[in-house]
Amino acid sequence: MKRYDPREVEPRWRAAWKAADAFRADAGSDKPKYYMLEMFPYPSGRLHVGHARNYAMGDVIARCKRAQGYNVLHPMGWDAFGLPAENAAAERGVDPAVWTEENISTMRAELDGLGLGIDWSREITTCAPEYYGRQQSWFLQLWRRGLVYRRDGLVNWDPVDMTVLANEQVIEGRGWRSGALIERRRRPQWFMRITDYAEELLAGLRSLPRWPDKVKLMQENWIGKSAGLRITFPLRGRDEGLTVFTTRPDTLFGASFLAISPEHPLAAVVAATDPAIAAFIAECRRGGVSEAEIEQAEKKGVDIGLTAAHPFDPSIELPVYIANFVLLDYGEGAIFGCPAHDQRDLDFARKYDLPVRPVVLPPGADPALFHVEQEAWTGPGTLMNSEFLDGLQVETAKEAAIDRARSLGAGERVLAYRLRDWGVSRQRGWGCPIPIIHCQACGPVEASPPVLLPRDLDFSRPGNALERHPTWKLVTCPECGGKAERETDTLDTFVDSAWYFARFADPWAAETIGRAGADYWLPVDQYIGGIEHAVLHLLYSRFVTKALRDAGLMDVDEPFAGLFTQGMVTHETYRRQNGEWLEPSEVTFRQEGAGRRAVLRATGEPVIIGEAEKMSKSKRNVVAPADIAGVYGVDAARLFVLSDSPPERDVQWTTAGVEGASRLVNRIWGAFSQPAAGPPIEGDPAKEALALRRSSHRTVKAVTEAIEAFRFNSAVARIHEFVAVLRGAGEASHRELAAARREALSILARVIAPFAPHLAEECWSKLGEAGLVAHAPWPEFDPALVEEAERVLPVQINGKRRGEIKAPAGASQSAVEDIVFRDPEIARRLEGLTIKKVIVVPDRIVNLVAA
RNA sequence: GCGGGUGUGGCGGAACAGGUAGACGCGCGGGUCUCAAAAACCCGUUCCUUUCCAGGAGUGUCGGUUCGAUCCCGACCACCCGCACCA
């Protein structure tokens, strides 16, 4: 028998798919549509196994759905703007466009080499003018609708990448790419008004049952809705009062001070005449934003000499502070301090010797003895020292306080959100230009898209190459014709990826989004990507979808009906004694009993085996799919990354694992290359044929259900089992058995097709089937063959398994009891015992309670 | 600190819906084939006791509910993830 050679077989079938244009999607079809999408890649240079796993998962679903009769759209594109291209330009002097295009060519070939069933005619590249020009068009539409604005504000400045980052891109005080400590800087920047959609983004999560709860919870927490009271305290000697936000209006009588953010407008007013206050504000601004610094940062403040009157009782007077822990852009940028019931306020009060007045009595506490020392009471209780609120519970007191504030005209019920507007300005040359022209006379005016990037940017120095370009920004104002300048900020690349799924629906459309295509294909039925985008890309995309819907560009509320977040591919790490990282190919292993020792292949020098970690260039534990394909074939690699762990979990890449998958490929091929072969038949051939048919149909059921539940590892396990059964089935000299084998092989070829598509085609053609297995219908199972006529029921005595009986499927309690009590083994076990109770779970188990 | 998750053999993991724990793969042990090795194939493989037959324990720990718990409830331990001065 000729050994299966994936290196010969696989390219042949990829060529056949190409020749047949096998994965082209067309909008006009009677079939139900199914839009399968994986997060598109950044063209970094080479594909790694993590990409392969992500796209293999999507391909399994897409191929299965296609076979099940859906009109499937499965496109691919490139998230092509971004910093690595600028870094390459800076280091090697290459044009980022050329560098990116070369990477795309390489990676397109590598992706294609994975045997993915993709409609390449729809390929999108975000750095192409036909894409980013249309992005500029909708950007301007949102601008006209007031959803885009420019303001001066404190921004997260990444000093290494020399650009601004959005809040979502700052992880533990560091830039999400550079890892540099973020500084706060004040500069004008462009924002998208995502906060306008806070409520809908929150409520919409409930319409996404096929999203992981974890992601929905993370978005919910990120949006951070709280209900409370906005209330104004009159200031002595001033016309305007000071407005604060609180979620604890019940504790208003416990107030002992007011505090405003150092960035609050009132702070600037008082600083103008008081150098000490100005100095304090400056000091606050210098403060770092790293986790450690915030943790240790002392609560500090300065009394600004103003006096506020309590809205409920003007005789109560409160000092006003500027405090470093009050945030400008949450609530009103100002708070009232209630030290007894808020830990921060308590710390502040102790430092500045302010009164601590308990107003909530914990349940069971003695009002005469209760007092707050170093720990604020934030739990439930009964109001005290609070005039009209006395005796109420916290929740009812909140309502009563809000009612009183409203009737006094001092405040009202409001909602506050933690979500901030999305800062989209980036000081980068390799990005989508913001299509705005600044004119001294007319202000910011629209530049008509596409606003193209110049090709002669200088990336040799850090910072914004676009800004440095000698002529690009110099234009005349489209309104008045006077001298004007282009905006030199470009858009955050998360804007590029926030609508690409809609462009895939009709990438040829002249409009920004082709309506007919979008109406047909959207929303994406199944989206797959990494959990790291839980609040970045996935929140931005939801917002942009809603904003574009309201602008009339598309007609869906949510972009992704189903979401699956897949785990990473990890690999062991290896280093020499001196700490130098080693590539897996440089290391060889020696078995020592149950354990394993690693040595350097070249010298035999001992190697330290480290934890399995996410593949990264710095740790040199990256495995390239192309290298594996050359040895084991792509099908084996796909089978392995899908089989060894559940898809939402990380999978550890191991050579032994791929070898196991490769064995499966060869066994399957063995079954097809000698389709009639098997051990001699021992019993009744008709019975053997029936047993084989049962196994085939059970496999169809199990694999289908596993794929639909995203349990690819279980699906592959069932295929393993089925192949073992098929190999053990008797030789097909008998007519019925021959037919059963033929059916089994036909089923096997089709159920492996989503996982190992090349092998499946080769098997399908070996069977003599016409056409591609990629276009063959998914096998259906006969329920009668899946059901077992006779069941084996374990028999327990007092919960311990003591034997088993055979009973017809669906046998009644009394029928089962009959069988049990006639069983001699069970009878022997029951000697000397009295039966107290018999529990029969039909088709499942029997439990005898005896003493 | 707040919120969420996970914990099963030597390893990755399986177990519908409270009903035979450990499917399938890896590794390991034994065997067939071979002059030999590799490959391939076959058998075995939770732990303890036991020649056999068999018995006992067992899903992070302790307790509870139940005829029966990996699954439900309570407390705890460990690890992972998200947020983090959000008033």
Plain-language structure description:
This protein has 851 residues and is of the alpha+beta class. The protein has 27 helices and 38 strands. The strands form 11 sheets. Strands 29, 30, 31, 32, 33 and 34 form a 6-stranded mixed sheet that branches. α20 crosses α22 (712-728). The longest helix has 24 residues, at 685-708. The structure holds one RNA strand of 87 nucleotides.
List the uncertain runs. Answer: 288-295
Computed Rg: 34 Å
Counting helices, strands and paired strands, the structural category is alpha+beta
The main pleated sheet reads as: 6 strands, mixed
Helix fraction bin: 25-40%
| Overall pLDDT metric | 91
DSSP summary, beta strand count: 38
Multimerization state:
single chain
What is the molecular shape? globular
The number of helical runs is: 27
State the end-to-end CA separation.
Answer: 63 Å
Fraction in beta strands: 15-25%
TL;DR?
Helix content is 36%, strand content 22%. It is of the alpha+beta class.
Secondary structure elements and pairings:
Blueprint: H1 6-20, E1 33-38, H2 49-67, E2 71-73, E3 77-78, H3 83-92, H4 96-113, E4 124-125, H5 129-144, E5 148-158, E6 163-165, E7 170-171, E8 174-175, E9 183-192, H6 198-204, H7 213-223, E10 225-233, E11 242-246, E12 257-260, H8 265-271, H9 275-286, H10 291-296, E13 301-309, E14 317-323, E15 334-337, H11 343-352, E16 360-361, E17 382-383, H12 394-407, E18 411-417, E19 422-423, E20 425-426, E21 432-433, E22 436-439, E23 443-446, H13 465-468, E24 474-476, E25 483-486, E26 490-491, H14 493-496, H15 500-503, H16 515-521, E27 526-530, H17 537-550, E28 563-566, E29 569-575, E30 581-582, E31 587-592, E32 595-600, E33 606-614, H18 625-631, H19 634-643, E34 651-652, H20 655-673, H21 685-708, H22 712-728, H23 735-752, H24 757-766, H25 783-786, E35 790-797, E36 800-808, H26 813-822, H27 824-830, E37 835-841, E38 845-850
Parallel strand pairs: 1-2, 1-27, 3-4, 12-14, 27-28, 29-34, 35-38
Antiparallel strand pairs: 5-6, 5-9, 7-8, 9-19, 10-11, 10-18, 12-15, 13-14, 16-17, 20-26, 21-26, 22-23, 22-25, 24-25, 29-30, 29-33, 31-32, 32-33, 35-36, 37-38
Helix pairs in contact: 1-24, 3-4, 8-9, 18-19, 19-20, 20-22, 21-22, 21-23, 22-23, 23-24
The chain binds one RNA strand of 87 nucleotides through α7, β11, α10, β15 and α11.
